[in-house]
Specification:
The protein is an alpha+beta fold. The protein has helices spanning 6-13, 61-74, 79-83, 87-93, 104-124, and strands at residues 26-31, 38-46, 49-58. The chain has a three-stranded antiparallel sheet with strand order 1-2-3. Bound molecules: FE2/S2 (inorganic) cluster.
């Protein structure tokens, strides 16, 4: 079992913003084909800002901690700022992940970006 630091353990044991937004403005799903872990992000957008962010993660401890941190960081950001969130910045905020768990940090930012793209697509097509 990899050794997680306290911050990662905290987000793993008490993940923030877990759940689903029923009338989400955008939904993004991302999976890791190697380990089979899956993550879904739901966003609510108001005035070009992420008003609410929730997620559901079926994955390892690092994946859960990463989703929790991404949701916390992204809330209140503009869409442009959120699109610039990188796996590295998330791992940094978590004060580091074990080397063999770094790949797990990719899913969080990617799933969030997918949710934003989904929202933008819906804007263009009038919600269809
Ligand atoms: Fe799959 Fe961590 S082992 S995301």
């Amino acid at each position: 079992m990899p050794v997680y630091n306290e911050k990662v353990m905290d987000h793993f044991m008490n993940p923030r913003n877990v759940g689903e937004i029923k009338d989400a403005d955008g939904v993004g799903e991302e999976g890791n084909p190697v380990c089979g872990d899956m993550m879904t992000f739901y966003i609510k957008v108001k005035d070009n800002k992420l008003e609410d962010v929730k997620f559901k993660t079926f994955g390892c401890g690092a994946a859960i901690a990463v989703s929790s941190m991404v949701s916390e960081m992204a809330k209140g950001m503009t869409l442009e700022e959120a699109m610039k969130l990188t796996p590295a910045s998330v791992a940094d905020k978590l004060e580091g992940l074990p080397k063999n768990k770094l790949h797990c940090s990719n899913l969080g930012a990617q799933a969030l970006h997918e949710a934003i793209k989904d929202y933008q697509k819906k804007q263009k097509t009038g919600g269809k």
